[in-house]
Each structure stands twice: as structure tokens, then as C-alpha cells.
Amino acid sequence: MKIGTIDFGERPLFLAPMEDVTDIGFRMLCKRFGAAMVYTEFVSAEALVRSVKSTVSKLTISDEERPVGIQIYGRDVPQMVEAARIVEEARPDVIDLNFGCPVKKVAGKGAGAGMLRNIPLMLDITREVVKAVKTPVTVKTRLGWDKENLIITDLAEQLQDCGIQALTIHGRTRSQMYTGEADWTLIGEVKRNPRIHIPIIGNGDITSLYEADLAFDRYGVDAVMIGRATFGQPWLFSRKQLSLDEKIDVLKEQLTININRINDMKGNKEDGLRKHSAEYRGILHTRRHLAASPVFKGIPDFRQTRIAMLRAETAEELIEILEQCRQRLKYK
């Protein structure tokens, strides 16, 4: 499978872009364990154009995680074009257009999955962004707005005609949000369409490599994208089974990577006050992964430990909690 000149090989697995989840530390670990492509957290075109610091910081990528995509969302043609040009300066391997985010603060304002109610505007944005940048442009979207408007089979052709180089389809409507089950039958129908020649990437409810293999076999997709199932387990992409100790060591490494990366970005290793700030930001990036990790499901009354993880304010405190979990799991 190829996007532009990038060859991903056979049956590649992609890490989905997720807000507050796919930070650089997590992406690097997913890459190490076998993700063929990773994506940054999605970014607002409007915020990029206004140079909002917290949004611009999401464009930081590392050569160690390539190939990497940056995903943008918005509802205004000029803003999306300008944002794509800004993103291109960060040198991603792919620029992805988000026409699938269902959350109210995005879709409710007409962006993300909200675009499924304004197809002409979606197509205008796609065409103009493709024309504005040299980086391969891809799209991620859903089956339609609701079950009465399952438009993806026609929409896929229209988006392809705009010049995109791959299409990711989440097997739900916007109305479903993340409830119910993902319907892969329409994804398979798009892939079997003889007029479709771009790669089709399937997304939705994949929680293991076994399920990813079934999706490849049943629906013929070119790649499978995995999202929520990766929370707290970047090793999900690996065919190798990790031991409990190895998994906890990976989670500790994720914390270290995030702290060090923030320090490196700021160049402030010698500044004690700012270093503490970087440590805390690294913890914020990491502790939600730890609290969600299925590794700890065997711990009796884990709720209190989870709360402690989410309240930890120093790396030392968080590592101590992880070590306590290690011991409790070994001797439960």
C-alpha cells in the first residue's frame, strides 16, 4: 500500500489521531511496536492561523516517528488552506483533513463530522487544500450524518476526484458518536468499487491484531487504523507478547519521553523552575494513559489507585505508584 511515494507494505496498521492522546511520546512508542503510520492530535485551522501557542506546539514531530501525519479541521476554505500551508512547514508526511470528529464542540459548529451536512463545502475545502500544498492530502470521515444519510459510497468517489491520496472511513455515523458497533460493510463496499483507486483505510472497533486481520480478510481494506483501544497500551501493534514487567517499563518510559521532549523543545534543562513545569506537563500527557491502561485491570479496588495516578504531580510520585501496581499484580 502506498500514499504518495510512501510504501507501507502489506496490511499496515495506523495509529488514529486523537486529541489529548497521541502526543509525541505515545506516538514514538506506537511506532516502535509496529504502527506503520502515526498521527498527531488533530489541530484547529482557526487556532493555527491565529498562532495559538498550544495549537502550534502540536505540530512538533520527530524523524524517529516517521511516517507521521498531521490532521487539521475547520469549516472555512481560506482558513483550511492557510492552515495546511502552515502545517506543511512542519514537514509531515501526510496532511489529513478531519471530516469525521463527532464531538459537539467541533461537529456542532460545522467542522469535523459537521461537514457531512454540507458536502459542497467539504469538497471545496478538499480541492483547495490539495491545490495549495505539495504534501499528500488524505481525508478521514464517517459513513454519513445518520442512518438515513449513509452517503459514503458516493462521497468517496467525490473526494477522490478532489485529488486526495487516501481515505480513512470510520464505520459509524455522526449520530452514533462512539456508541453501538462500527459497520464495516459500507467500508468494504467502498473498497470494492471499481472506480476507487486510492487506498481505503478502515477504522472502528478494532481492539486487537486478530480483529485487524479479520478486517483485512473480510473487507479488503488497504490499511486498518486503531484508535481508542491503544489507550495505555502502545504495544497493541506488536505481534510479540510482552510480559507484565515489560509493559510497566514501557509505561514508565512513556513518562520519561514526554518529560524529556518538553524539556528539549524549551531548551530549559538548566532552569529549575521551568524544568519543573516541563515535568508537570509531561505528567499531564502521560497519566491519562496510565489510568486507562488495561494492564492494571487485575488490581482489586483499582479505582483509588487510578485517582492517585490522575492526581500525581511529580514523576517520582507517578513512578512509585507504577511500582506499587507492579508488586500488587505479581502477588495478587
What does this structure look like?
- The chain is built from 13 helices and eleven strands.
- The chain is of the alpha/beta class.
- Strand 9 (167-170), helix 8 and strand 10 form a beta-alpha-beta unit.
- It is globular.
- The relative contact order is 0.11.
Question: Which labels suit this protein?
Answer:
332 residues, alpha/beta, nine-stranded parallel β-sheet, two-stranded antiparallel sheet, 44% helix
Please render the helix and strand layout as text.
Elements: E1 2-3, E2 6-7, E3 13-15, H1 24-32, E4 38-39, E5 43-44, H2 45-49, H3 53-56, E6 68-73, H4 77-88, E7 94-99, H5 104-107, H6 119-132, E8 137-142, H7 152-161, E9 167-170, H8 185-192, E10 200-203, H9 209-219, E11 223-226, H10 244-266, H11 272-292, H12 302-311, H13 315-330
Parallel strand pairs: 3-11, 4-6, 5-6, 6-7, 7-8, 8-9, 9-10, 10-11
Antiparallel strand pairs: 1-2
